[in-house]
Automatic annotation (TrEMBL):
The keyword Ion transport does not apply. Residues 574-657 form the Glycosyl hydrolase family 31 C-terminal domain. Keywords: Glycosidase, Hydrolase. It comes from Eisenbergiella tayi. GO terms for molecular function: alpha-D-xyloside xylohydrolase; carbohydrate binding. Belongs to the glycosyl hydrolase 31 family. Its EC number is 3.2.1.177. SUPFAM superfamilies: (Trans)glycosidases, Galactose mutarotase-like, Glycosyl hydrolase domain. InterPro entries: Gal_mutarotase_sf_dom, GH, Glyco_hydro_31_C, Glyco_hydro_31_N_dom, Glyco_hydro_31_TIM, Glyco_hydro_b, Glycosyl_Hydrolase_31. Residues 227-563 form the Glycoside hydrolase family 31 TIM barrel domain. This is Alpha-xylosidase.
Amino acid sequence: MIIKEHNKLIWRTSGETVVIESWGENAFRVRCVVMGDVLDTDFALLPQKELNCIIETGTDTAKITNGKITAEIVPAASGWRKDHGHITFRKQNGSVLFSDIDHKDSPTPHPRKFRSIGGGDYSLISSFKAYKDEKFYGMGQYQIETLNLKGYMLDLAQQNTQASVPFVISSRGYGFFWHNPAIGRVTFGENKTVWTAESTKQCDYWVVAGDTPAEIQQAYMRVTGLPPMMPEYGLGFWQCKARYWNQKQVLEVAKEYKKRNIPLDVLIIDFFHWPRMGDFRFDSEFFPDPKGMAEELRAMGIEPMVSVWTPVDYRSENFEEMMDRNLLVHVEQGVDITMRFFDGETLYVDMTNPEARRYVWEKLKKNYVENGIHLFWLDEAEPGYTKYDYGNYRHYLGSALQVGNIYPQMYTRLFYEGLKEEGRFDIVNLVRCAWAGSQRYGALVWSGDISSTWDSFRKQVCAGLNMGMAGIPWWTTDIGGFHGGDIHDPEFKKLLLRWFQWGTFCPVMRLHGARNPHIDHVNSQGEMILEEGAPNEIWSYGPELEEIFIRYIQIREMMRPYIRFLMYTSHETGEPILRPMFYDFPEDNLVWELQDQYMFGPDVLAAPVLDADMESRSVYLPEGLWTHLFTGKSYHGRCRITVKTPVEQMPVFLKDGMHSDWIDTVKKFGKEENLKAE
């Protein structure tokens, strides 16, 4: 049966209901259920105005057109019986974007395989044709050193260093968003593309057609939400380490930056500044006057940021009440623990529960906001289970197996909505994970607790670019990596220097890490508290590196008006700040394979130094005139060049004469000079 309903095309047969409807310009939302009506879930997709679609129906075929995209649905045979609808998506010119699998691709070609797992829930396998030479980009943040995801199988699951954001852009001219927060996987295979959900109630995806990657990516941003405007303190340099363990130390670091006349926008107080996980407050023994501390920092022009965690320790002053009110994630079987860390056994806050979010916000408001803290670091955002047995954890919205991937989005939403209630609009939430829609809640995602290695460094470049294509424009890393960096090791210093240079040309420039050797501390009762990492300020690595670090902080300050423009453009359109070369040069076939250089906005090409002893590197310059930021030498594009990489230089090129004043300004920078752009 075929039904036309406003902007919807509804297909029913053999127990399956498929609904295809317009959802934004040049886009469709496709939902399918077994024996029922489709659900109006709003995990990430925002309501869209109804568009005038063209719907044509035949005896047993139908098609719907919305601008640049057409969906055709026809009966498909499984053996001798026509038992499901086969969907093909086409461009305006009639060429195929992609389609469901058919009998040529599989002996059992049903494109949407639902298998009952009880209670009205299903596991789902949704399969589509594969195309030779198709390339895929996006999907969030995975620790792999590749940009093109063709040939990869990716887990749809949130873990430390991994952020699953299931939107992908195809080189064939479409974008595909798997609108399902279930645990699962996607395979971009040579024979077919397969999306799976381990527990779900329906198949739900969104697809858009566009002439360029930029058009496709920005269409996705319009239906899942645009980021806020990045506040001014997001544009400069951020200082952090694991961890500043008391108020005195925090203020000493801030004063030293001011004494040395080094610009600093944000100073971050990391984890375990609290008595117990889940207390959501400062430990008064180590932070006796948080309000006075925040005021003193702000008087120096430095914004304080504070870490918040999601696990609640059994010994926390809030645990019993939260447990009694069902505000914590429930363990279905076994020991009632979701994470063990340091000396604590914990349960996570159920961020899918509106009451839990309200409870936590009231604690945060009382203990942080009223003490002058307005910037938060949202750690343990996946959340980071000790054992990733998703089927054993239950949330307010359902099992973690069915809804678990939405957790970081709900976590970020808590802070965004709470701060807006307080009249704040300069909201940035530094968060360890994300899902679709997180960007509209001010999510600044960092790439988690990564290793301090060259291999890890190279992976971050690809991760950041794919995050931008997946709709997360605010992104950063721990400059130098988190684990394993020894401040006395010459090899680590090489890595840190090159990472710092690259961090200058990331959306947010943030130095962090748990540096070796660690330092032990005890409290007034003689109890061991969480250790402190070695010093991680820019003067901690010797005068030679400090001078180069200062130079790059000055470059960041010099670029402040440009970065402000990039953030405004992203706020208005969703355009990523960090983006692959093909975003700006889609007609150049050579740039689709480049993964070790990128565009920092439309005017700046950055080519980081990604190996320890790289004395020179190859850079591909697309069409245009490109001027080296440090040497001032210009090159005509559509060619590959080799440039030297002395320790004080990372190859950076300016397009078509833009920002030519930067070249002379950079030459003036040195240890004794400082520039604070207005």
